[in-house]
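Researcher: Here's the sequence for the chain we discussed earlier.
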Amino acid sequence: MNIFSKIAAGLKKTKDSMMGRLETLMNSFTKIDEEFFEELEELLITCDIGVETSLDICDKLRAKVKEKGIKDPSEIKSELKEIIAEMLGEDKEIDTSNKPAVILVIGVNGAGKTTTIGKLAARYKNDGKSVLVAAADTFRAAAIDQLQVWAERAGAEIVKHAEGSDPAAVVFDAVTAAKARGTDVVICDTAGRLHNKKNLMDELKKISRIVHQQAENCSLETLLVLDATTGQNAVNQAKLFSEVAEITGIVLTKLDGTAKGGIIISIHRELGIPVKLVGVGEKIDDLQDFHARDFVDALFETETDFDHNYERLTDEEITENNEEENISEEITEENAAPEFTENNNDEIITETEENISENNDETVIEKTENEEVPKKKDHGKFEFLFKEITFGKKKKADEISESENESEDK
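Model: Thanks. This is the structure I predict for it:
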């Protein structure tokens, strides 16, 4: 499955919810009036795009309708698609240009920080980069052990302290070690914290300050991991976390399990923070770079719906499938019944008779003058085999009958 297909598959629930309702709305109106826009605003808000963002989208759509003189509601979809694409802006990837590139991962408990770190580490290792993971979540039970398992899977090194130690010290040691070893990427885990707990947020400030001091002249990213299933609550989390840390990007996880994917639009428009990664599954390669155009195309896709599984086959995959079908046909022909000669008929009959049970319903009944001949079953291309069996049995029965007659004569 290619990258576009993964994004499309991850957005299936959002697409089914949002686009299905949009189609219903357009089919319910014969003209574009204020009532239509009110219904559209309500639709966008309930799709977790947010109140302010929904109103902004509708205002821009009104302007386009007036400018182009659009009267048919069915023409709204293409204009809406372009407005959302403009709102999402240009794509921004994680910066790893200056090594060691330091990536600080923050977020609330359960958002998917540890999993994201493991997938990121595996990605950079596959790209040929050296990776060091800092286990700075020293509060949650077994968090260090869990991260170590991910690091081992990815083939990355890990810096860790004892459970309950100062997380800022772990980050400091990790960045220092990365500089000394010439490591390409450092990924720092942090404790999951509630955004309304002041002491934990103050600690995050400390970690962020140390990272900025130690990673001077290095590429630095602070990624906020958000759970897409929380909808507008994720936007509120982003606002509060941005007050204590300079967030450079959003990682939106569990996008495949929710119909609230519209929060991507709200996050970018209200906070100005780009979504850099999206999680569209549980596999290690299901953490994808976010591309605004792919997102919009997948969301508004209607003509080629990927047969409802959102998977497009490449030319190479189609060729492989055709080759497999041809091979299958060749195997079927090879397994067809071979030509039999008079010399091997007896062997075939013997083997076949041994495989037929005594209670076989297909036992051949000899025709007599007073008995009706039962309807024979059609055995297809193996019909000749059953004819040979029938002939052999009849011959054997005749021999037995002749032997009995000779005994009676004697």
